[in-house]
Amino acid sequence: MAEKYTRRIVKCLDDRQINKIKRNHGIKEIERHEKIESIIKKGVSVRKILSDEIFNEDTKENEKKKILYDIIENKLEIHLASYGRTTDERIDNLIAHFKNLDKDNNIGISRDGFERMLLDLRKIENMEKLVRSEFEIEPKVELTSETLLDYNIRPKDILYLIPLDDLKSFCIDRNISYRRKNIINCILSGYRESENIYIENYVLIANNDINGLKNNGIEIKSKDIGLVFENTTKAIFKRLSLNVNEELKKRINSKRDKADIILDLGNQEIIIIECKSSKKEYSKFTSVIRQVKSYAQTYSRNGFKIKGIIIISSGFTDDFIHECNTFYDFKVTLIEAQTLVNIYEEFKQSKLNVFPITLFRHGLLQEDVIVKALKK
Length: 376
Prior knowledge:
single chain, alpha/beta, Restriction Endonuclease
């Protein structure tokens, strides 16, 4: 496991636990920060630390599990889908979590927030020297959010490098409250812009992945996730420079027919968007078509021409896609959450000012086709 993750674990241990490890390995340092760095540099096994070194010889299995749960859930503020029945399983699941982090593109805050955080952290003495030394970054390389992410160095990796006393002073200077909480997560919260961070975590929102969102520092209640998914989808379409008409929706929607999003194309033409967050691939074709048909009829009665329906979810079953392909009452475009995010990222790099709605074709939207069109 990478040293940066070992550091996260060791830094959340209490002084008694750290001193026990120190004695076991003949570490001479006195200051807490120096002791932690010596433990890491000596290459002490995380598995050995968590299975043996932080416990007394007479500590029972159940007590070990409770202590590990406290470390994972309360001190690291990591929310695992499963903690395991034994101490070893608990450690295995924690290590697997850290290994999976390197495959995850989410960094906990937006890239803009990361850049602002770096600028503020430069006020801490020796911060840059600490980062360059730990991650072996040459002086000629500028420490920006972009270059650090190229090195796979994330906001938490930077913050965990900084001594606790310096972090506390930083929080006081920035008016960041941290008492009885994980100070790292409190600092990250101070640089989190809700719209950007929700877009970066859009796929987790679409999947109703509450634990995944918690691990990225985002607290959303299960009952609210559908609305967050709808609002984040709305934000993405606005960033595609399409006209999301909230006033029209408020005026036409009824208690019975509540369309999620209305794209106003002008000349009394609209596209209706339905958002379906789901832990599994979405499968309820008949149900959702009945819904959107009713919406379409309501808007048609009010003089609007329906140019298409867009359904967005985490994914769709093969049967759902097949039923959509053989449905011809009106055009229905299916968009998977990851596809929408990727299209948005490609659109930002394109020369287009407005996303071409002609690319919303019937059936499942093919990302490669859209990307190719945007690059023309």
